[in-house]
Structures are given as C-alpha cells and as structure tokens.
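User:
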Amino acid sequence: MTNAETLAPPPAPPTAPQRWSPVLAVALATFTLVSSEMMPVGLLTEMSHGLGVSDGVTGLSLTITGLIAAALAPFAPRLVGRRERRAVLVAFMLLLALANALTALAPGFAVLAAARILLGVAMGIVWGLVTGLGPRLAEGPRTALAMTLVFSGVSIASVLGVPLGTYLAALFDWRFAFWTLAALGALCATALATVLPELPAPPVHDGERPGGPASALRHRGVAVAIAVTAFVVLGHFAGFTYVRPVLEADAGLSSGVIAGCLLVYGVAGVAGNFTLGPLSGRHPGAAVAAALTGVALAAALLPFATGGMVGVLLVLVLWGLSYGGVSVATQAWVRTAAPAVTEASAALWAGVFNASIALGSLAGGLVVDRAGNRAVLFTAAGLAAAGLLLTVPARPSGHRRRR
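Assistant: Predicted structure:
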C-alpha cells in the first residue's frame, strides 16, 4: 500500500511521566547515611559513660568511619564490578543497618570500633554509587531537581538527624537511638528494593577500565572540580567545627542560645540546597562560585560579627545558605565535566568529600590550638577563597550536555 496513511510516520510515543519515588528513596538513604555517621556527635558523653572510655576515645568512632568511607568511595564502582547497582545498594544498606544494631549492642570500645568499620564500608560503597544516580533516575532538566532531592537528605540529616537521636537518647538511652537507625536502614533497603528500577552497570567508554578514579581524573574538568571540592570542604570543616567555641568565647553566648543559632544555620543549609540545586542544573560553575563566595565571606566576617546577636545570625544564615548548596553544586560540576565517566567521577568526588571532612576538622584543631579562634576562621576563609580562584578559569558552561 502506498496511500498517505501508510507513508505517514508513526506518532511519537508520549513522554513517560517522571517517577519521583526512586529519587525520594535515595534521599532517605543519604539521610540515613549522614545520621548514622554523625550520631556519636550528639551522644558522645552518654556513649563514653556506657562504654567505660573517655570522650576522646569514643570520638575516634567518627574518625574510623569517615576514613574508611573516604578510602572506599572512589573505588566503589570498580569494587562492585558489573553487578546490578540496585542489588548492591540494598545489600549495603542492610550492612549499615547491621552496623547500627551492633553499635547498639556494643559492650565496649572494641565492638563499637568493629561496628563503625562496617558502617564505613557501607557508607563508602553507597556514597560511591548514589552520587552518580541522578541522570539515571531523572531525564534532562529533571536531573538537577533529582540531585537536589538526593542531597537534601544530607542537609536535613544535619538539621534533624542528630537532634532527633539526642532526643530519643534522652527519652530512653543512647542505644535506643542506634536501634532506631538500624530500623531506618532496614526500611531504606526495603524502599530501594521496591521502588528503584533495575540499574545495570554503566557501559565502558573508550576502552577505559570500569569504575577507576584514574579514568575520571584524565578529564581536566573533573580534576579541577575535585580540587575545588577539596578546598571548600576543608575550609568549611576547619572553621565550622570550631564555631561553638567562637560563639562561647568571643560572642559570650550561652549553650541554649548557641543551639538556637546552629538550628538557624541548619535550616538555612536546607534552603541553600534547594536554592543552588536548580541553578547548578543550568549553570553549575556559577552555582559553585556562589557557594564558595558565601562560605569564604561568612568565615571571614564571623570574627567581626560577634559583638551582637543580629550580626552572628546574619553570618550564620549566609554560611548555611552557601554551604548547603556545596554538595549539589560541586557534584553537578563533576557530572557535567565528563558525562562518559559519571559513575567513576561521582565516586571519586564522594571519597574526596569524606576525606576532606576528616582532614578539615584535624587542620582546624591544629590551628585553634596554636593560633586561636580568629585564626581558624581566617584559615577557613582562605581555603574557600583558594577554591573560588580555581573556578574562575575552569568552571563549565551551563549549556553543555550532561548525559
């Protein structure tokens, strides 16, 4: 037949509606990861008494977890090989649940350390995979919103995760808080298994070995974005780790007032994630530059703002808004710089991010002990400013394709 009907092209299939339940399940996973990692911060005294060790020894549980996660995350794609990613994520969220349950049962520091090692392994693998999932869970312009939602789990955990755990510990005990995290980890695994689509391993491009961080670093844009991430995270944690003593000694604020100030900072961080997230989808370089500018300014201005509450709150809001967008903005830059190696570059980013948290806090402590509170804030500002300088000649165009 040669009539017009047979020659007409078939109608285009309708665009599939976006399913947001997989994105929200991954956001719940990031919330659980960060809450599990940081929970000892709010329960340090109770855990120390319960385990019969000093606060300093108990604090090592954070270092153990962070360093293992940082070491494993860059190699997560290679370690899991060609295995289907949904199954891997479910398995390691169950390992996270087991680690939290073991923490709740720990009779002493040795068992706690073993539990936190398992947690670090789970965190490293999960972080190494979920940071590159955005383009696989949402199409085109929806990718930026998907990644914003995924990283909202980090911001919300910073605001709600540890305080909720502290509240549960006050009602019951610190072990109950970790049992709750264990249940939440199991719930996350169930949600991921239920709503995530099948996620086969990404194809190998240009003969590169799958999942290696070296394959990502061959791309200059990825290398610069990773360096920028390291500078800003080092700077943030060098300074913000010691904000409480600054507010106590320099601003003369009480513990209750400081808690309120940090809550304001946390809420601003959530707002920053949702403000810079959409911008990072269109103009990742501009979003990164805005975030780094805000962090550098806030750290530099805080020593001069301690004379009154209004000044302190304004600076903390600026800091929260700016740093709240760092994760989603820098990850968008990494993803944009080399779409062919998204999983490997995202895993490398996760490892550098976690390592910079640990090293930033350590560096800040050394500066505080030797030069005081103001010096550590100026150091933080300098590190963030150094990252900002790297963005000027290298930031990616917002019009490049990300897939």
